[in-house]
Specification:
Blueprint: E1 3-7, E2 12-19, E3 23-31, H1 33-37, H2 44-66, E4 75-81, H3 85-102, E5 106-110, H4 111-117, E6 130-135, E7 140-147, E8 150-156, H5 162-172, H6 180-187, H7 211-228, H8 233-262, E9 266-270, H9 277-289, E10 293-295, H10 299-302, H11 306-315
Parallel strand pairs: 1-4, 4-5, 6-9, 9-10
Antiparallel strand pairs: 1-2, 2-3, 6-7, 7-8
Helix pairs in contact: 2-3, 4-11, 5-7, 5-8, 6-8, 7-8, 8-9
This protein binds 5'-O-[(R)-(carboxyoxy)(hydroxy)phosphoryl]adenosine and zinc ion (ZN).
Length: 348
């Protein structure tokens, strides 16, 4: 089975060929970061147009790298949501058109389910059940994952997503977008205990809230500027380190609590914030103390990519659409997904 995966839900064009026996045979990724940078966020119309320009050549290149003709594919999976509707339509249209022309199945995939399964592309894949922490620029979710399509959302953010909090605080520190990586780099030179920023909702429950933390950072910066004019480099680093410590501690405590409350001892991290080194280190040590195994996909599988779409398409191949409708669902709650019917092959 060779499945082509197409990802165009936001500002990354991702294409990959996945084979359940051979793994990822070839992949391509183009990030539109530079295109949107001067606007401080993703401009939907520009994103769609750029997907149109990049997608067909990328599919061609990825197939060539895999040594395949279009006719060698067994199915085509695409991100059907959630995401920007125009951007989703680009991938959906190409996937559906190709599938019609080739007479192959086309499989619409849920983007967040794909993130949740991405760790299964690694050599040491987690098996069900597990707790998943999905932390990106748009989402912060804790999901009890019992099997394919068996998702219970245990916690989510009440305001900003984790990545959004990193981005907004980075902006306060005059760092470029997306702010997570430069903020983490600046934090390396700072003292995480210099400021005691709030850890909202730390003591109870599994939901997150990051906007109070961001406000506390803004006030601390305003106070410092008020006292002495320009911010010293050391003070900026201390603020970055103290913010990162607070955000990471919140995520770690909630993950461990979710494991304790469900009795699960496997934790899977996904999404761009999963690249954060302090988060990885703390989860590993504090998880291990409690007998919890932590799985991180490599960084390129944490962020948006075509391989996770192809993998999910393969696992959902029983749902191959027999209609020619292009599905694009900007909003699509993860817990609306269903497990495969009993007649479909069970996979772990
Ligand atoms: O999953 P992702 O690549 O894209 C979506 O949002 O869908 O996540 C991007 C987010 C951004 O907010 C970025 O600042 C954050 O992940 N991020 C990080 C790090 N690397 C990326 N946040 C904290 N530490 C990092 N090392
Ligand atoms: Zn994503």
């Amino acid at each position: 089975m060779k499945i082509l995966g197409i990802e165009t839900s936001c500002d990354e064009t991702g294409v990959a060929v996945y084979d359940p026996h051979g793994g990822i045979l070839a992949e391509g990724l183009y990030s539109q970061l530079d295109l949107h940078a001067r606007f401080g966020g993703v401009v939907p119309e520009l994103a769609s147009r750029d997907h149109v320009a990049r997608l067909v050549p990328m599919v061609r290149d990825v197939l060539a790298e895999a040594g395949l003709e279009l006719t060698g594919l067994d199915g085509i999976a695409y991100t059907a949501g959630p995401g920007l509707v125009g951007a989703l339509m680009v991938g959906g249209s190409l996937a559906t058109g190709l599938a019609m022309g080739l007479g192959k199945p086309v499989i619409p995939v849920h983007h967040m389910e794909a993130h949740l399964l991405a760790a299964m592309l690694e050599d040491d894949p987690p098996s069900f059940p597990f707790i998943a922490l999905l932390v990106s620029g748009g989402h912060s979710l804790l999901v009890e994952t019992r099997g394919l399509g068996e998702y219970a959302i245990l916690g989510e953010t009440l305001d900003d997503a984790a990545g959004e909090a990193f981005d907004k605080v980075a902006r306060l520190l005059s760092l470029p977008y997306p702010g997570g990586p430069p903020l983490a780099a600046l934090a390396e030179r700072g003292d995480p205990d210099a400021f005691r920023f709030p850890r909202p909702m730390l003591r109870k429950g599994l939901n997150f809230s990051f906007s109070g933390l961001k406000t506390a950072v803004r006030l601390a910066l305003e106070r410092s500027v008020g006292n002495g004019g320009a911010l010293s480099e050391q003070l900026r680093a201390d603020v970055a380190a103290s913010f990162q410590a607070a955000a990471v501690e919140t995520l770690v405590v909630k993950c461990l609590r979710a494991c304790a409350e469900t009795g699960l001892d496997r934790l899977v991290i996904a999404g761009g914030v999963g690249a954060n080194v302090r988060l990885r280190r703390q989860l590993r040590t504090r998880g291990e103390e409690r007998g919890i195994t932590v799985h991180y996909p490599r960084q390129s599988l944490c962020t948006d990519n075509g391989a996770m779409i192809a993998l999910t398409g393969w696992r959902r191949r029983h749902e191959a659409a027999d209609s020619t409708a292009i599905i694009a669902r900007p909003r699509w709650p993860l817990d609306e997904l269903q497990p495969p019917p009993a007649s479909a092959p069970r996979l772990n």
